[in-house]
Design goal:
With about 260 residues, this protein is α/β, with parallel strands linked by helices. The protein folds into two domains: about 90 residues, ATPase, nucleotide binding domain (Nucleotidyltransferase, domain 5, 2-Layer Sandwich), CATH 3.30.420; about 120 residues, Nucleotidyltransferase, domain 5. The chain has seven helices and ten strands. Strands 3-2-1-4-5 form a five-stranded mixed β-sheet, with helices on both faces. Helix 1 crosses helix 2 and helix 3 crosses helix 7. The chain is globular. Homodimer. One of its GO terms (biological process) is coenzyme A biosynthetic process. This is Type III pantothenate kinase.
Length: about 260
């Protein structure tokens, strides 16, 4: 069994793959809160607790972390609790097969590279990946599977927290669709601005990106949503074509296969 570990700024996502080769399937996945202060032992306790009976059946680990302090503890955890298990940690030198056509490839986060690999594997076209996480990352992929760059915007939860902190009369609200775009009370006004505002922001950026790609004769462009907050926006977006919730986990599986076979 392959354990895929995606450490993001807000959440850690675990995926358990069973099988071998083309028959590999995602058996289970879990999500837990990221704490930059967590130790290797705390990380192991939570991970093993979630894996349950599968904890001692792991035969490989593929991992990435965008949080340096957790990456350090992740390495310690794997060495201490799964020391004899082959592992791939995405970092410079790991074979991903993704050309990075940007000014400074060292600035590109491991999660963006892995999402590029998975998106091209799934669709084999030029792609735009919208990752709804701590920030909203929009990554652009050529028809050849090259990473071309993208755009960043503040994430949904960051924006909600900032608004509640800076505006005395406003507060956090449940992120659900209001009765109408025109809110009739404070809660609905916030819900409308957040939900429809972020959907429109993404649609506007995606349309501009697709127009630039089409100007280079890129062929068809596939727009994919992923990330923990993607379900909030999917129904309101007019540009997103596919929702692949396990895109990063799939990329971790693919990069493990590239580096261990």
């Amino acid at each position: 069994m392959l354990l895929a570990v995606d450490v993001g700024n807000t959440n850690i996502v675990l995926g358990l793959y069973a099988g071998d080769g083309t028959d590999t399937t995602l058996l289970r996945d879990w999500r837990m809160r990221t704490d930059a202060r967590m130790t290797a032992d705390e990380l192991a306790l939570t991970t093993r607790g979630l894996l349950g009976e599968h904890a001692d059946k792991i035969t490989g680990v593929s991992a990435l972390s965008t949080v340096p302090s957790v990456l350090r503890e992740l390495r310690v955890m794997l060495g201490r609790y799964w020391g004899d298990v082959p592992r791939v940690i995405v970092q410079p030198g790991v074979r991903t097969g993704v050309p990075l056509l940007v000014d400074n490839p060292k600035e590109v986060g491991a999660d963006r590279v892995i999402n590029t690999l998975a998106a091209h594997h799934l669709f084999d076209t030029a792609c735009v990946v919208v990752d709804f996480g701590t920030s909203t990352n929009i990554d652009v992929i050529s028809a050849k599977g090259e990473f071309l760059g993208g755009a960043f915007a503040p994430g949904i939860e960051i924006s909600v927290d900032a608004l509640a902190t800076r505006a005395a009369q406003l507060r956090k609200v449940e992120l659900v669709r209001p009765r109408s775009v025109i809110g009739k009370n404070t809660v609905e006004c916030l819900q409308s601005g957040i939900l429809y505002g972020f959907a429109s922001q993404v649609d506007g950026l995606v349309r501009r990106i697709v127009a630039e790609l089409e100007a280079t004769d890129s062929g068809p462009v596939t727009v994919i949503a992923t990330g923990g907050l993607a379900p909030l926006v999917l129904a309101e977006s007019s540009t997103i074509q596919h929702h692949v919730s396990d895109l990063t986990l799939l990329g971790l599986k693919l990069v493990y296969e590239r580096n261990t076979r």
